[in-house]
Design goal:
- The chain is an all-alpha fold and about 270 residues long.
- The protein has two domains: about 120 residues, Up-down Bundle (Four Helix Bundle (Hemerythrin (Met), subunit A)), CATH 1.20.120.350; about 120 residues, Orthogonal Bundle (Helix Hairpins), CATH 1.10.287.
- Helices cover about 75% and strands about 0% of the residues.
- The protein contains twelve helices and no strands.
- Helix 2 packs antiparallel against helix 3, helix 8 crosses helix 10 and helix 8 runs antiparallel to helix 12.
- The radius of gyration is 28 Å and the shape is elongated.
- The mean pLDDT is about 80.
Length: about 270
């Protein structure tokens, strides 16, 4: 048994084996894309052959393991094993169309095996996963600020309900909507409620239409729809955009850079000595 295990280790550690599996993964990804255009029986047959190759690969790695715990401790092994097992579930097993669609979607995730095509990509994925867990405090800080600015935004920029307006106020409101409609025009008041205000601030964070929002508020002030002065309007939007950029660049990027070095040091530590 130990001889078989040693042979499997040599096979899985072989560069030709690794590159062959990578090429098959790429071919599999391309065929999955081709299947979105039309049904080809030949492609289905090739996909079954590829599934067989993936099965052999996971069996070789399982036999080559140092221990059962070591094999299942690797997230990549669990990921690969799950995808292989999903591939053996027949679609005609389900009469429910939604279940069949869900099964197809899960099989499409075989494309993600490209993420383990090289050590560099695997390291980047490891950094991203580690950064997600370490950025929890950063997310809390971001939520606090977006919640605070959202409340201030509702207080400063909430437009009046048109059903409550009459006379000159209603005329000025209709003129304002024609001159400065919401962006997009079918969207509600950007600061009409707390949840909409938070979403609007998230839009500004991405750089989407934040200057349009600022111009609309200036116009709303000119028409007497809101009482907030242009100085306060400019200060609010610039402060939020600058703060949001700071949070993204310094907190998120900083966490990723720190974890990149941490993962790299961990890989170098676990690298076998020549």
């Amino acid at each position: 048994m130990e001889n078989i295990r040693e042979v499997c280790r040599r096979i899985t550690a072989n560069k030709i084996f690794e590159w062959s599996i990578t090429i098959i993964i790429i071919a599999n990804a391309i065929l999955i894309g081709v299947e979105t255009y039309a049904y080809f029986p030949t492609i289905v047959l090739i996909q079954k052959i590829i599934l067989g190759i993936f099965t052999i690969e996971i069996l070789l790695r399982f036999v080559a393991r140092k221990s059962l715990k070591e094999f299942f401790k690797s997230g990549w092994n669990i990921f690969d094993l799950t995808l292989v097992l999903i591939g053996y579930i027949p679609e005609d097993m389900f009469s429910n169309a939604s279940m069949m669609t869900a099964l197809r979607v899960l099989r499409v995730f075989r494309v993600l095996r490209l993420l383990r095509a090289s050590k560099e990509i695997k390291m980047i994925v490891g950094v991203l996963i580690k950064s997600i867990t370490s950025m929890f405090a950063n997310v809390i800080l971001f939520v606090i600020f977006i919640y605070l600015f959202a409340i201030v935004g509702v207080c400063l920029f909430k437009l009046p309900d048109p059903s409550t307006l009459s006379g000159d106020e209603k005329v000025r409101y209709e003129q304002f909507i024609q001159v400065a409609p919401n962006s997009p025009s079918n969207s509600p008041d950007p600061f009409g409620s707390l949840h909409e205000s938070m979403f609007t601030l998230f839009r500004e964070l991405t750089g989407e239409d934040w200057t349009d929002l600022r111009y609309n508020h200036i116009t709303a002030h000119e028409y007497g729809i809101i009482k907030t002065s242009p100085v306060v309007i400019n200060t609010y939007h610039i402060m939020w955009f600058a703060l949001a950029a700071f949070l993204l660049l310094n907190l998120v990027t900083g966490a990723i850079i720190n974890n990149y070095q941490s993962v790299k040091d961990e890989q170098d530590k676990n690298k076998p000595a020549n």
